[in-house]
Amino acid sequence: MFGLPDQQRCCSDYFYDGMGPLFTTKRRSHPTNSGASPFFIGLILLELMVASLKNKQTPARLNDSISSLSAGMISETSNLFSKGVYLMTYVWVYENYRLVDLPWDSPVTWWTAFILVEFTYYWLHRMSHEVNIMWASHQVHHSSEDYNLTTALRQSSTQKVLTFLFQLPAALLVPPAAYSAHYQFNLLYQFWIHTELVTSLGPLEYILNTPSHHRVHHGRNPYCIDKNYGGTLIIFDRMFGTFAKEEEKVVYGLTHPLNTWDPIWVQLCHYVHIWKTFWATPGLTNKLSVLWKGPGWAPGKPRLGRIEDIPKVKYPEPKYDSKASSLWSVYVAVHFVLGVVLYQELVTVAKGLTTTAMLGRVMFVVWTLVCVAAIMDRKPSAPIVDFTRCLTYVLVDVTTRLTGPPAVLLPSPLMNAMLAWYLLSAVIWGINLLKPVFKGKTLKAE
Length: 446
Fold this sequence. Notes:
Blueprint: H1 6-12, E1 15-16, E2 23-24, H2 33-55, H3 62-77, H4 79-82, H5 85-97, H6 107-130, H7 132-142, H8 160-167, H9 176-192, H10 211-217, H11 235-240, H12 263-280, H13 284-292, H14 326-349, H15 355-377, H16 382-403, H17 412-445
Antiparallel strand pairs: 1-2
Helix pairs in contact: 1-9, 3-12, 3-15, 6-7, 6-8, 6-9, 7-12, 12-13, 14-15, 15-16, 16-17
């Protein structure tokens, strides 16, 4: 690739695929999203089991966990259309504009990559909190009011471009293989620190980013705001004055909670807020400041706003929790799991799909996540939207079976079970939608 030495070409063929160390390559068979999912699911279930035994209560709520995983899945769909582009650009810059030739197999090269990745991540992360237009993408990750391993997967679908722009200058120094490997490690490391089960790591707290430090980062207590930006290390926070030790019990989430499970609104809400604020703010300079200063800025305030404007909270704070009945919770859980199955099928066969087929799959997966959220939010539109979705699945599945290859490439028993479930779901919604009609006719007859 681009004339790179064989060792670098071998490793630089790996493309980042999102939630952790997910790599693919056109030349070799390596674990993909499908291969890494059991790792995440296993750790999430382990955390759930240990927390249940230890505290006699679960660390996660069904609705919040589904919301976090939905955000991650929506974020990942963008990789289906841009996979490899970022790394290929990095390789091109390295091949044509690198300032030095660091030996690919030298410890100096790999330590340089490790420190540079961490340093770059620190400033990217810090700017994502201190620049309003960047916060618009990053706030997705902070929107959960719970703190567990599913929170780690709550990611933005728009932050990848900013991440890439911050990473690209490293191509002037670090070989693609070394940078890619350490970038993956940095992200993978951050998965496990999203937990309340680990209290302290002793002396390692002075060097590493730990669950305790990252709990502070996710807090909306005033002492937690804009603190602890590190990825694997905490040393840059200590150096640049952004470190805070965990003190009082942390209250998680945004300073102004979203109070919805809608995965699309979670991704877009702050962009809408910026748009409205931009046009409502007088003066061109002030309008530009809305974009480039902190989320808490307003005319007459410091660049990052005033800490006293942060709503004071004290654990335990009430959380948004539009509870559904046990039966509807089961319904939601089953449809979400089927959405995950369809998403995994999409990732597995993506390379062989046409753009139309890929878009169709992406749209149905996102439609599923939106419907699941609407049911959990108890929106009035949920019945008709989900009825339409289930009926669409049935019609597409039956039509493709009769006219050619199936719409999705899954084992026949699973396909049959899914068809039966979607048909049953459509019937359930159809009956619920028709009830008021029949009831109205009965009253008129009387």
